[in-house]
Amino acid sequence: MSKSVEREAVIRARSLTKKYKDFVAVDGIDFDVYRGESFGLLGPNGAGKSTTMKMITSVSQRTSGELTILGKEPNNQGPEIRAHLGVVPQKDMLDRELKVWENLVTYGRYFGLPRKWLKTKVEELLEFAQLTEKRNEKADDLSGGMQRRLAIARGLINEPEILLLDEPTTGLDPQARHILWDRLFRLKEQGVTLVLTTHYMDEAEQLCDRIIVMDKGKIMAEGSPAELIRKYSSKEVVELRFGTDKNEGVAKQLEGKSERIELLPDRILLYTDKGEALLTSILDSGLHPVTSLVRRSSLEDVFLRLTGRTLVD
Amino acid sequence: MSLEFKPGSAVDPKRAVRFGAWRVAEYRFYAMSKWMTSVIVFGFGNPILYLISVGLGVGALVDANTGGGGILGVPYIQFVAPALLASAAIQGVMDEVTFPTMDGFVWDKVFFAINATSVSATQIANGVMIVALGRGLFTTVLYLGVLLAFGAVPLTSVLPLLFTSMLAGWGWASVMLAITARLERDDGYFAIIGRFVIAPMFLFSGTFYPLEQMPLFLQPLGWISPLWHSVQLGRHLSYGMELADGMLLVHLAYLAIMGMVGMRFVYPKFKERLSR
Known about the structure:
The complex is a heterodimer of chains A (313) and B (276).
Chain A: E1 9-20, E2 23-34, E3 38-42, H1 49-56, E4 64-69, H2 74-82, E5 85-88, H3 100-110, H4 115-128, H5 144-155, E6 162-166, H6 174-189, E7 193-198, H7 201-207, E8 210-215, E9 218-223, H8 225-232, E10 236-241, H9 247-254, E11 260-263, E12 268-272, H10 275-284, E13 291-296, H11 299-307
Parallel strand pairs in A: 3-7, 3-8, 5-6, 6-7
Antiparallel strand pairs in A: 1-2, 1-4, 8-9, 10-12, 10-13, 11-12
Helix pairs in contact in A: 3-4, 8-11
Chain B: H1 13-16, H2 20-32, H3 36-65, H4 76-97, H5 99-107, H6 110-115, H7 121-149, H8 158-180, H9 189-203, H10 219-223, H11 226-239, H12 247-274
């Protein structure tokens, strides 16, 4: 990432801190988001991701530290900053009584966009969000995936420089998630900077060029998904299940067999660069797991390594 | 058609940050236009019913028993008109600062979506107030139209009565908005306000007879009521009812201060709530 120094940072945070009375939600974090990249904040619920997003959208003021967005100061230039941001909130917050196209037009008006301009833009966005056929339906009558796509289309009405998405696919079925990922990928091709929070590591791996892993308000690690996996995990993982009451005992016997071993309530994880070979040697030693699996390391493993906990409880 | 996207070039930030309150109002009025029929039916229905019951019933009785003199030298219906109009304005603003405002914060959370654009929390609060006053004005104008059509008030009273009614509407709306902004849930709160605040206010504000008719210990109920202040102003400005020295200013100041103090509590709460 040495090249990134020359790139333009559209968001810059230094010692960024947010406190609510005694609770420190965001604890002095540093990061940069560069133009055109897709940047992810990964972490479990309560890690401080949403609070960070609210500070970026300039609706929540930081307690201390520095933050600039598109070169502006969010404490007193919030509305100007938001003129160039697109926000897709976790709960869609659509006007459910209004029709699909009306949701887009009324939203565009908040940015002072002329009706005539909006007329063509809305049709473009409806097509992009695959909602053209639903244009005259009430937002309330759409499926969850469609409502989310409408929320994304709405967030794009002002042709934002940065699109912020808070947990974009939480609660969606796998097919709806894939449609959404595809749309987000296309946006990135159009030069939109994407900033998203997620607690799904597959989503972060699919969508993000670079991520920060957050836990308890702090940044635990930063880099591309591949870099993080390389740095904090082995190439492969062997997952073994011996049954809930036996896992702990077996885990003791397995110590020393791999670079690292993690005991979870339901399974044992063995970190190694040669998964198949390790599994064979375990089976040869007379152990008989109920299920076994060799897989590539993921961001979930990175998170486990960094925090000692899994991402989704 | 493909998505043509030039990030950051569509919106002029200087233009975007202006008139946010009016854009919020534009959206609300648009959403409201969908049930315009019922707004108009209620807008006309209410005054017509009152006119029939108060004008033809109580009014005929009062006027007959005062030798045609009415109260304070005017026919009864004209005496009651400022109160009916001001309470119409109060009812009109209530329709906006209660449930739609709760919806913005709690149910659909539309205010949060609006606040994610270049519209600020203060502009959202002002937008709500514009819409509330718009609804109050609409209801009052319909009411006034019916009163005029039935010859219940002279044409010269139109402007003074609109002014005094809307002043009461504003004072009431800003206090109610400050309260609604603090509610985390409905909990039947608005029904309580309607039954135990608005209904008694309507009865104890010198609406149907001069407040002085009440025993002194009940009169303070009128003194604290914005409706009474508005009614006194309306009666003074529309047909010259005498006010005690300095009371013109007191009535005006009471309503204006209510409006201004209410808004002082509205803005910071909107800001705080939308930052969550």
